Amino acid sequence: MKKRVILLILVVALAAGIVWWRSQRSQGQPERLTLYGNVDIRTAQLAFDGSALVTSMRVEEGSRIKAGQILAALDSSRTRAELDEVKALVDAQEAVVRKLESGTRQQEIEQARARVASLEARLTHAEQTLERYQRLSPTGGVSKEALDAAEMQLRVERAALDEAKQGLALALEGPRKEDIQEAHARLEANRARVRLLEKRLADTELRAPSPGTIRSRLMEPGDYATPGRAAYVLALDDPKWIRAYVPEPSLGRVRQGARAWVTTDSFPENPIEGWVGFISPMAEFTPKSVETTELRTQLVYEVRIYVNDPENRLRLGMPATVVVDESSPPTAVPAPASQSEIESTLPKVPVP
After folding, report:
1. What DSSP state is assigned to residue 269?
2. Which of 55, 125, 222, 250 is least buried, going by the fewest C-beta atoms within 10 A?
3. pTM to 2 decimals?
4. Which pLDDT tens digit goes with each residue over 71-121?
5. Are the CB atoms for 259 and 328 separated by under 8 Å?
6. What fold does the segment set 82-199 form as a domain?
7. What 3-state class would DSSP assign to 310?
8. What is the pLDDT of residues 30-53, one digit of tens each?
9. Are strands 52-57 and 70-74 parallel, antiparallel or unpaired?
10. Contact (Cβ atoms closer than 8 angstroms) between residue 51 and residue 330
């Protein structure tokens, strides 16, 4: 009987020691939540902003591209011809504007003055001739037809002199402000057409909006491109996240901004640091593609763990294991950690 009591006391003491040892060990380790999901990224359908025949498709599916890289091109011969024409009109209109703004040349003013002086002399001669004919007309020294002709010539010379004086006044005053404004308006209209055609010419080249990988090539040279028809499907490098699902009982263990580490079957020993960037406000049934230990009909909440992946190790649809640090402070973007720090704090969990 005494042996049984002693054995019972030893068992109780051993159990209490194990419980105490586990509690002390867990106090030094941060709480972790393991999730399973798949890599998700955004894609962009790249299309031309114009309509023309495709002349070249420069990249293939799977190619890594940089932002601003030319991916494809359209026939630009017609746009280039229109641009050359409008540039010539701009040059001609600039010459007109310079002419109007410089005003009348001094040589033209002197020429107008000389014409006025010449017509004044002719008018004086016409007046003297008419006076002489008028004195001779009563005595019959000049016929009536000659007298009428002299009077007519005088009126002609006076009109010509008035016209010349008006021309001199215009030469001295220079072009009207309204004419200069009209010339400037025509020049700006032609320049606007140049900018429009330059934009259309630039639109004949399809450029990558950001770095990424070509997922699909949807056109070939000779196809007719339109603004609504995609030429490529681009998988973007950033942002990149893991789409996982948290069972409702574990939802309280996930906070937005919490630090997390992502591992994959391809790189099990090289975790990638991330953070919880999205927690769905709505519950849903467990998708078939997600593996959890809970029942398939249990309600879950979608979470997105955003990552920085400069080496492009994560690919679309790749299964991944996510370990969320429940004790980390909620931040929008956690401070980056070194590779050794991540490996030292990451618990050894089996990768599915």
Report:
1. T
2. 222
3. 0.59
4. 999 999 999 999 999 999 999 999 988 887 776 666 776 777 778 788 888
5. yes
6. Helix Hairpins (1.10.287)
7. coil
8. 567 888 899 988 889 999 998 999
9. antiparallel
10. no
